[in-house]
Every structure is written in C-alpha cells, then in structure tokens.
C-alpha cells in the first residue's frame, strides 16, 4: 500500500511563495512553519508552559521553540552535508530525524524564482518538500521519500504545482496525485 502524503501535510503546512532567497533561509522558513503547527512536541510544551506559569512560562516556552528550531536546522544542514537532497527538475526533499517530532510531518514551500540548493542537476529549486521524522522511525520515511520522488516524476505535475494559485489548490493537487 502506497503512503498517503495527504496524511502528513495539510494546507497550513504549505507556503505558496517562500520569501527566502537562499538555501539556509528556505530551511529556516519551513522549520518556522513546522514549529507554528501543532505537530511538534515543542509547540505543545511551550503552550503548556504559558498556561502553567503566566509571564515566565511564555519566555521559557519561546526558548524551547527557539532551541528546537536551531537543533532541527542543524540536523537538516548536517543531512545536506552528506549529499544534497536537491533531486533535480526543480525539486528538493530536505529531511531529518528529531526527538521533537512526535509524528512524521511534511511541509512544502514554493519559490517562483528558484533557489540555489546545490541540486544534482545544478538548476535552481522551485519546490521544497521538507520531511520531519520522529527519532525512532526507521522505515516509513523511506517510503515517503520514494512517494514524493514518484509523484514529482508524473508528466506536468511540477508545473501544475508551480501554477496552483494558493495552498488549498496545491493540497488538492497533492491529494489528487494519490488516486
């Protein structure tokens, strides 16, 4: 049975137009989006701290999120140092394991102008699929990476994703690709 990417992503995890102009800031922008979702344990911990200890709890909670973002960024950068996740044809799939990830999360960002991501074909990347993986996950993530690679190989699919007007339309295209 194929992995359903629509179970790992929703409209709130899609950035229709990344503001970042370089690889590091693309990663940071996607990580920031992840930490603003309910899918990472750091967000829950931060919200619990705010509720339990007003004032001080907010500062502690924000510190947890900032440390989590920095740690996740370093893990993804380390993964990229092992070999680019820019697979070519304008697509990159940065990914990393992290204990703050309680369930696998997929984020997507688009860059109309493209970003130099040291892609295998030396072309700019326009579509970023960031996969955040729980530390203990060892197998399912490989199936997700393979499914993303399969999906973007469909004729005209990359162009359809780039031309979609908003996150809702992008999500619908991703969902339709599973049929």
Q: How much of the polypeptide forms β-strand, as a percent range? A: 15-25%
Number of domains as seen in the coordinates: 1
Helix content: 40-55%
What's the CATH architecture? 3-Layer(aba) Sandwich
The beta-strand count equals 6
Mean pLDDT: 87
User: In DSSP terms, counting alpha (H) and pi (I) runs of 4 or more, how many helices?
Assistant: 6
Using only C-alpha atoms, the radius of gyration works out to 16 Å
Question: Can you walk me through this structure?
Answer:
The protein is an alpha/beta fold and 179 residues long. The chain has a single domain (15-177), classed as Mannitol-specific EII, Chain A (3-Layer(aba) Sandwich). It is 46% helix and 18% strand. It has helices at residues 23-35, 41-52, 56-82, 140-152, 157-163, 167-177, and strands spanning 14-15, 86-88, 91-92, 95-98, 105-115, 125-134. Strands 1, 2, 3, 4, 5 and 6 form a six-stranded mixed sheet that branches. α2 packs antiparallel against α3 (56-82). The longest helix has 27 residues, at 56-82. The mean pLDDT is 87.
């Amino acid at each position: 049975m194929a992995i359903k990417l629509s179970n790992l992503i929703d409209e709130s995890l899609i950035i229709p137009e990344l503001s970042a102009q370089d690889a590091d800031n693309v990663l940071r922008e996607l990580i920031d989006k992840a930490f603003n979702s309910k899918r990472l344990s750091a967000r829950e911990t931060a919200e619990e701290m705010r509720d339990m200890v007003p004032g001080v709890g907010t500062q502690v909670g924000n510190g947890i999120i900032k440390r989590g973002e920095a740690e996740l960024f370093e893990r993804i950068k380390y993964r990229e140092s092992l070999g680019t996740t820019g697979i070519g044809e304008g697509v990159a799939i940065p990914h990393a394991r992290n204990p703050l990830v309680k369930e696998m999360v997929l984020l997507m960002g688009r860059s109309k102008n493209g970003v130099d991501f040291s892609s295998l074909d030396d072309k700019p990347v326009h579509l970023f699929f960031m996969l955040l993986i729980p530390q203990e996950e060892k197998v399912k993530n490989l199936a997700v990476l393979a499914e993303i690679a399969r999906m973007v190989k469909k004729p005209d699919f990359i162009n359809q994703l780039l031309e979609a007007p908003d996150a809702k339309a992008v999500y619908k295209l991703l969902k339709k690709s599973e049929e």
